[in-house]
Amino acid sequence: TDHSDQSRPPVMQRTLVIFKPDCVQRRLVGQILQRFEAKGLRIAALKMIQVGRELGEQHYAEHKERPFFPGLIGFITGGPVVVGVLAGPEAVSVVRGMMGKTSGIEAAPGTIRGDFSVSKQNNLIHGSDSPESAAREIALWFKAEDVLDYDLAGSGWVYEA
Ligand code: GDP
Ligand code: MG
């Protein structure tokens, strides 16, 4: 996902984003989605759901041995989320960069977590950490036919040829 090798042309990717329960409760969904749209990412899927324990545990399976896991599952199932798929050039690393570091205390100003969070857990947003994670997570949260491919008018002004 590191796109620092400038010789490699940008790859069109999809990534999963979750506007976590704290984001919904703080009414920041629109403001944060606006950042992704303004950046040039395309919304390929978007829905609001109440996450059940099983889906939460599957999504965060890599953390199941961590001490914060029970609290994390309580958090992600503690209220509705908005979950979506964003698409665009190097979408995985672009979204991770816009999110900032996991802890809102450490995240740089200008990033989503840096601007809106002072918590390690309540950090507003999830974004897939690699193209492999994105594929796994998109399949977990969405039916294939509900992730849409379409052209945006004027995309020639946003994307390189
Ligand atoms: P991310 O990829 O930046 O979201 O971070 P991780 O994959 O490491 O952790 C997944 C999620 O678990 C984070 O976004 C936080 O909501 C939560 N989390 C991570 N580390 C901690 C921690 O040390 N304590 C608590 N309470 N929550 C954590
Ligand atoms: Mg992670």
Structure description:
- It is a single chain.
- With 161 residues, the protein is an alpha+beta fold.
- It has a domain of 109 residues: Alpha-Beta Plaits.
- Helix content is 35%, strand content 17%.
- It is built from seven helices and four strands; from the N terminus they run βααβααβααβα.
- The protein has a four-stranded antiparallel β-sheet, sandwiched between helices.
- The longest helix is centred in the first third of the chain and has 11 residues.
- The model has no long low-confidence stretch (mean pLDDT 96).
- Guanosine-5'-diphosphate (GDP) binds next to helix 4.
List keywords for this structure.
161 residues; alpha+beta; Alpha-Beta Plaits; four-stranded antiparallel beta sheet; 7 helices; 4 strands; 35% helix; 17% strand; globular; binds magnesium ion; Nucleoside diphosphate kinase
Which helices and strands appear, and what pairs or packs with what?
Elements: E1 12-19, H1 21-25, H2 29-39, E2 42-49, H3 53-59, H4 69-76, E3 81-89, H5 91-99, H6 112-116, E4 125-127, H7 131-141
This protein binds guanosine-5'-diphosphate and magnesium ion.
Measured by DSSP, the beta-strand proportion falls in: 15-25%
- Strand elements, count: 4
Q: Tell me the radius of gyration.
A: 15 Å
- The CATH homology group name of the domain at 12-51 and 81-149: Nucleoside diphosphate kinase-like domain
Order of the strands making up the biggest sheet: 2-3-1-4
> Tell me, what is the CATH class of the domain at 12-51 and 81-149?
Alpha Beta
Report the principal-axis shape: globular
CATH fold-level label of the domain at 12-51 and 81-149: Alpha-Beta Plaits
Q: SS-based structural class?
A: alpha+beta
Quaternary state of this entry equals single chain
In the CATH classification, which architecture of the domain at 12-51 and 81-149 applies? 2-Layer Sandwich
Quick one: biggest sheet? 4 strands, antiparallel
> What are the low-pLDDT stretches, counting only 5+ consecutive residues below 50?
none
